[in-house]
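Repro:
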Amino acid sequence: MAFVQHVLFDSALPGSIRQRALDRIYADPGIPVNEGTTSSFWLQTPHPTLSKIQLSNLPSSADTVIIGSGITGASVARTLLQCRERNSSIPSSENEPSVVMLEARDICSGATGRNGGHILETADDYVHLANDFGEDAAKKIMKFRLAHLQTILDVADELMIREECQARKVQFLSVYFDEETWEMAKERLSRFKEAMPEESADWLLYEDIIPEEFHLPAARGVIAGPAGAIWPYKFVTGVLDSLRRQFPHDLHIETNTPVQDIITSSEESRWPFSVVTTRGIIKCRHLVHCTNGHISHLVPGFRGRIYPVRGQMSAQSPGDKFPAYGMKHSWLLNYDRGFDYLTQLPHDHAESNAEMMLGGGFAQGKNGGVDDLGISHDSELCLYIDIHLSGALAAVFGHQNWGKTSGQSVKNMWTGIMGFSADGMPWVGKLPSSLTDRSHDRNEGNAAHGAEWVSAAFSGEGMVQAWLCGKALGLMILDHDGKQSTGESADVRSWFPEQMVVTEERIRKSFLPRQIQHPTKEDNPHL
């Protein structure tokens, strides 16, 4: 998160370039476009039943409509539907589904289907959080984020999709190549270990002797720790497929059904929201936004608070000398400017053959990455990032350790749209009319009336935030309705960070400036 804010307010860049980025950030991000999208490796084998799923006619109503079919929407749906299963007092109707999920394109084709597949938390995040929110808050946020690894693995095991989605524990190697960044990394690790000794017990530091098996001849130092890797599209489609089979009448998924508008009822109504789509109107009591970087299209109050950022990913063939480390390691490659992230897929799997899944290169993008801020379409590649990602691996691991690649070295290169927040935290909770510009909350104290909700803005770190944010939001909706959820996770406040909750105070404080305040000499030679 911090690196994005840094480039946006870097006075070394002409203010006109940064102002154009702010203009994009405050613009309507629109609806995800179907035509001309870049080809994600993760999406190369569409799910046989979910990819383009839709009924011949859109349901006329539902208790809850979820916009977005990524990892967040899947988590919200699972939480709501599992509560229905446990609580027989909640009525069920074959004519009105409990949950309808709307997706503008094919299933899970947005950020989740285009990310890096990392489940990774670092000591750097703890230090940034402690500086921003204090030690106690930082510890709670870190515990929340660290919990995602085991939680996601447990869900994959429960649904028996661990092999299919390649969910695995690995050891991450966070690699540093210069003295300055390495010294700062050691200080941050020391602070994290001192504050959270139990959680950081497996974090290791390699400096004087870096194991040869790491194949990192240029590394100044390495920090290693527990992490995970996963095929995110297959995880989400596995979850949704399981829910459809378990709740055939209570869950409907409608792909290629973009939402165009939201109309609120001016009268007392069972369904306060009319969701206008390209295929008709569906009425609902609760409306849940899980659209991340596109959120401010339908919730205009988020403009300047949540904004799209384009990221770039690649799938590459390993050199013939490089080991098959897909079940052992993932990597974070830290440079003097920016970083890359890397996993390797399992060797000789039915759908993978040790591909290197390398993403990043933001700082190597045009104008240091500023030109990717506020971009909401995934139809183009950045040439400069393409050049960087296409040539990085042999240099990082050493040409002598890499060898030659057989066939096409870069199998896929694609982009995806992330949702970043001005204060670095996700936004989770009930939406007030100050954000939506819709006066639906006149009866917000009445459980019989629904509400609009959001879980979005994971600032490029969705795999350690989105799943449990979605679960927390589902529990908030159940609490609003007075429905009991069982288990120790039901008390959301005990484990969910308050810094992520939607509040009026946060709305007042957390936004980017509309104008660049300090012009540079490049913009005005008379300064």
